[in-house]
Write a structure and sequence with these properties.
The chain has two domains: about 190 residues, no CATH class; about 100 residues, no CATH class. Helix content is about 50%, strand content about 10%. The chain contains ten helices and eleven strands. The strands form four sheets. It has a four-stranded antiparallel β-sheet with strand order 6-7-8-9, with helices on one face. A three-stranded antiparallel β-sheet has the order 3-4-5. A two-stranded antiparallel sheet has the order 1-2. Helix 1 runs antiparallel to helix 6 and helix 2 packs parallel to helix 4. The longest helix is centred in the middle third of the chain and has 33 residues. The radius of gyration is 25 Å and the shape is elongated. The structure holds zinc ion (3 copies). One zinc ion binds next to loops. The site of one zinc ion (ZN) has 8 residues, from loops.
Amino acid sequence: MHESMLENGLDFILNAANLLKKAEDASNAEEKEKALKYCMLHLSSGIELIMKFRLYIDNWTYIFADMNKANRRDLDNGDLITVDYERCIERLNTLCDIEFSEENKKYLKSLRRNRNKVEHFITDATTEALEVSINNALTATLIFLQNNYEDMSFSIKDMETRKLTEKEKNLLSEIINVVSSLQEHHKEALTLAVKQASMVSLESELVECPSCREKTMVISDSNDKCHCYMCGYEAKGETAAREYLFNIEGVDEYSIVKDGGEYPLYICPECGKESLIEKDNTYVCFSCRMIYPATEIQFCSECNNPYWVAKDEREDDIGLCSACLKYKIEKY
Ligand SMILES: [Zn+2]
Ligand SMILES: [Zn+2]
Ligand SMILES: [Zn+2]
């Protein structure tokens, strides 16, 4: 049973890649959605299998959800609860020394989240955003496969050395074929999206889209909304900033506040909307596009809101925002 894990996993992944191609060529929305749905289900099953097989090669006990209860008989009978997706990635990392780039880890995890949502019919992502997310997860999967399985013979602990079977080899090369044509298509779409976005914003001011994660979102376009040219995501600045913090930075307001921390979303000194976030040594407002160098933003000792202090005015700064300063002056 466990010997066929790799072949099954590869089969699922190839199937998913073909379904994504089908979705991209689909002529109507219904057909596209259906292809994407099965694509996501097959892809996450496939990824889970190839990751588990990698754990299994290192040490068969690693695939048990509870490694303390691992035993050979349950393994041989297939009578076991296996490790879940997220922990699989962790164990590959900590037990097998397999590094995933932060980016690829995010792609794989967000695929899983989308998969769960689609399964329960609660996804709010556009089909375009799902396509992008799947494409990136497929690329991450291919990297994992090439690093760990291609042209490789591996020894399974307590067992003889084994090479990829002919069938596995064929599946792998087919996957490489389909995925590279998908990547080509993805690259073209991305180039086009960046080009379109750059017509309304400086390319350096584009930000990662909370929905598809590509750096193709324009902050506050002519409709006063953030808009992604890759997947069509659109939201008001306040909403987009919150979704950015959650999906891109992994900042969850509920758990931060629960632990007594401060949620890093601030009121913009320029437009007064709660859509200012810190990003790459700057503060960026998702409503009015204002960008401040981080060194020029101070936090008011009275109301805690950020305010702007120009470089050459720092000596005059007394730690108060203009509203609080005005209030104090009027009081006396
Ligand atoms: Zn997007
Ligand atoms: Zn603003
Ligand atoms: Zn203040």
